[in-house]
Amino acid sequence: MDKLLIEGGRPLEGSVRISGAKNAALPAMAAALLTCERVELDNIPRVRDIITMGRLLAYMTATVETPELPPTAMIIQAKTVNGAEAPYELVRTMRASILTLGPLVARNGSARVSLPGGCSIGARPVDLHLKALEQMGAEIGTSHGYVEARVPGGGRLPGGNVHFDKITVTGTENILMAAVLAKGETKIENAAREPEITDLAELLIKMGAEIEGAGTSTIRVQGKEKLHGARHTIIADRIEAGTFLVAGAITNGSLEIIGCVPEHLASVIAKLRETGVEIRETAPDTLVVRGAKKLGAADVITEEYPGFATDMQAQFMALVTQAQGTSVITERIFENRFLHASEMMRMGANISIEGRRAVVHGPTTLSGSGVIASDLRASASLVLAALVAQGETLIDRVYHIDRGYERIEEKLSSVGARIRRVS
Ligand code: EPZ
Asked: Whose CA is nearest to atom 41 of ligand 1?
């Protein structure tokens, strides 16, 4: 099993280019199931979850081509999806497989997708996806670990008023994809407002869908009989960009982050500035981060977009282990997303966990040790902690990081980090 070996203590200097957003690319790939024509996507990050989604679509009879050039392109064509299902073997390795449910039932009139089950950051049910599909007129049954959705009497989903009890990102994406082929209008209330939702809506509109309000909490969709092929470039990964902003800050370095969307990072930038880190927008798609001589403590509460992203919580925790004073981090989105804290404590951090709050007392000198990655963003936070730790850190189970960060060791080495993959 691959591990990352990192020798800390070097300020990062130079430029890094941000890849396309995994969490925007996954729904875009699922959206290709909505048409028999070719959907050409660009800026697809080459990460493990994308490969898994490609395998799942191929299982459902879609052809998935990844041309050599440009290396970020992908062409998907799902000529038919008859009898398609998402099997447990693929779904269990990636929860985002549930994103195929909406498009499949919309195009095919029925779908069978394995229930994803929990994961290390929480129970993560899909009840809200299913309730919303029912509100659109689907009949839902679960048996043998699979969810079966069908349109009573066959044909297209009627559409309807969907109200999410709680904001859900992939839930909103699933329903948006189901709604674009419905017979009537669908109104989605309490919708997620993440940039990934807006990006998906832009692709669907290019495919012929009629959507209003994406990016707000009320989305209206007029269903169409058919969608067609389209070309679309995926937005930049705001979480990768945020992770590199913290990398520059935590190592007291100076990093240029190219190819990002500063607007999508507003809450992260505001929090970093609160700790004394300097961040400048030097071009519409470029940020420059410079570490602070003395980092100050700052409290964070994770929230849905445009609030501070739960996907940046672990990285921020690594940063404030180096800040003067006490920082309180409150995790509101997932119930068990502090697994990285105990690993950071093994490196010398002073953190106490009180339910959904982590209290971090800083600054502490971290020392390199053997640590275990528990999920994607936890792995990223351990890499960040290792970059500032004294001595060598060996991070085990880095397959988690490969799910969502493209060539992380290459990108970090190019700006001066001592990092290498060992098996
Ligand atoms: C998306 O997950 C992201 N994944 C996650 O990225 C991200 O952490 C999360 O949104 C929150 O921003 C993708 O986009 C592929 P939710 P998702 O449904 O959609 C509860 C990463 O590291 N809930 O918005 O699965 C749920 O348990 C990751 O890249 C229900 O109770 O998250 C959670 O507490 C991991 N029932 C909250 O809602 C449901 O049916 C928000 O989850 C659905 C969700």
From this structure: 168
Q: How far is CA 127 from the centre of its chain?
A: 20
Rounded distance between C-alpha atoms, residue 207 and residue 231, angstroms: 8
**Which residue's CA lies nearest to atom 8 of ligand 1?**
311
Provide CB contacts within 8 A for 243, sequence distance 6+: 312, 315, 380, 384, 405
For 330-364, what is each residue's pLDDT tens digit?
A: 999 999 899 999 999 999 999 999 999 999 999 99
Distance CA(181)–CA(157), nearest Å, equals: 7
Determine if ligand 1 sits within 6 Å of the CB of residue 310: yes
Query: Which of these, 340, 379, 344, 338, lies nearest to 361 by C-alpha position?
Result: 344
Q: What is the atom index within ligand 1 of the atom nearest the CA of 304?
A: 12
> In whole numbers, what is the pLDDT of the chain averaged over residues?
95
Angle between helices 22-31 and 195-206 (to 10 degrees): 30
Domains of the chain: 3-19+236-422 (3.65.10.10), 22-233 (3.65.10.10)
Instruction: Give the nearest ligand 1 atom to 377 CA.
Output: 22
Nearest-CA residue for ligand 1 atom 35 is 311
- Which residues are marked as active site? 119
Q: Is the CB of 96 under 6 A from ligand 1?
A: yes
Contact present, 16 and 420 (Cβ < 8 Å): no
Q: Is 376 in the pocket of ligand 1 (CB under 6 A)?
A: yes
Is 331 touching ligand 1 by the criterion CB < 6 Å? no
Rounded CA gap, 239 and 313, in Å? Answer: 10
What is the model's pLDDT at position 118? 66
192-195 long-range contacts (CB < 8 A, ≥24 apart) are 192/167, 192/168, 192/304, 192/305, 193/217, 193/304, 193/305, 193/306, 194/23, 194/169, 194/304, 194/305, 195/21, 195/24, 195/235, 195/238, 195/261, 195/264, 195/305
Which atom of ligand 1 is the closest one to the Cα of 335?
34
Q: What is the mean pLDDT of residues 181-203?
A: 98
Q: What is the pLDDT of residue 85?
A: 86
Which whole number is the average pLDDT over 80-107? 90
Residue 237 Cβ < 6 Å to ligand 1: no
Closest residue by Cα to atom 27, ligand 1, is 124
Q: 359 and 351 in contact (C-beta within 8 Å)?
A: yes
322 lines ligand 1 (CB under 6 A): no
